[in-house]
Amino acid sequence: MDDLIFGENFDGKNLDTLTPLTKKRFDYLCKRIKELDPYATI
Questions:
Q1: 33: how many CB neighbours lie within 10 A of its CB?
Q2: How many CB atoms are closer than 10 A to CB 6?
Q3: pLDDT tens-digit profile of 7-35?
Q4: Rounded distance, CA 40 to CA 36, Å?
Q5: What is the pTM of this model?
Q6: 3-class secondary structure, 37
Q7: 6 neighbors 19 (Cβ within 8 angstroms)
């Protein structure tokens, strides 16, 4: 899940490796959350 939120290249310390959250990743993240918890409100 961290890869979806922060991007695949984020090392946890260097903010230059942080990838902006894209609509595609956001939609996938919402889909995964709803799969895990169908009653989740996003």
A1: 14
A2: 18
A3: 778 887 888 887 888 888 889 889 999 99
A4: 9
A5: 0.59
A6: coil
A7: yes
Cβ distance 1 to 35 under 8 Å? Answer: no
Copy the structure tokens of residue 3.
Answer: 């890869």
- Rounded CA-CA distance 28/22 in Å is 10
- Of 21, 15, 13, 18, nearest to 4 by C-alpha is 21
The Cα–Cα gap between 18 and 20 comes to 7
Alpha helix ranges (H) inside 1-42: 2-6, 23-36
Per-residue tokens: 37 = 């918890």
